Amino acid sequence: MIGPFLWMVATSLTTQSQLETVGAGLLPDPVTLQPYRQIGEVFPFWRFALNSLGIAVVSTVLQLFTSATAAYAFGRLRFRGATAVFLLYVATMMIPMQVIIVPLFIELRTLRLVDTYAGLILPTIVSSFGVFMLRQAFLALPRELDEAAFVDGAGHFRVFWQVLLPLVRPALATFAVFGFMSSWNAFLWPLVIAQTEEHMTLPVGLSLLLGRYSPAWNVIMAGSALSSLPILALFVFAQRYVVRSIASTGIKA
Prior knowledge:
Helix content is 71%, strand content 0%. It is mostly helical. It has a single domain, classed as MetI-like fold.
């Protein structure tokens, strides 16, 4: 699994002449940073990166809010049909994006949100997986916490915000990693909805780079290496929360 990443980095540090040499080795000789300097010249890489970063951050924050509130309702409130609604909600995970992408595009075109940041973000602000995951975290907490808070005069919002939410921070951090990765790496929906370079994200931009500069593999690999750095940094930062979340909740049904 590590091999492709090592090959990507090695290629990004290799000169174009060495890549075109028959029988050249895997390791770059000499090592060059020219592809990384060239990446900003051949296409607006940093604009695409900022688009991806902004969309991923906003989408992740909104997913945390919608998933946490829905998970609290499914996990802590008792209402008629809760189980049926939850199962129906979770069943949407079995529907691939390719099935709904055409009606979703028509809907956003009707709302005049094609080629806008709102059109890129709106379909990603909810996550059935996030609701399922955070619901399991809420279910792992004893109900005596809720009852004690209600006795003290707290309402549902205060119980959710001040009592339960701080206790599921590892699960929130874990889902934040998943949500950010999903939004950062998204390709199909941004490819369909973003029609100008102003709103394109980094994966779509890298695909344009491949089409325009297909022989320049060192430049393409340099762009790919840079695009993987935010995900790597996020995982390193949140790794302890991921482990703690799995250990505490078990992610069990």
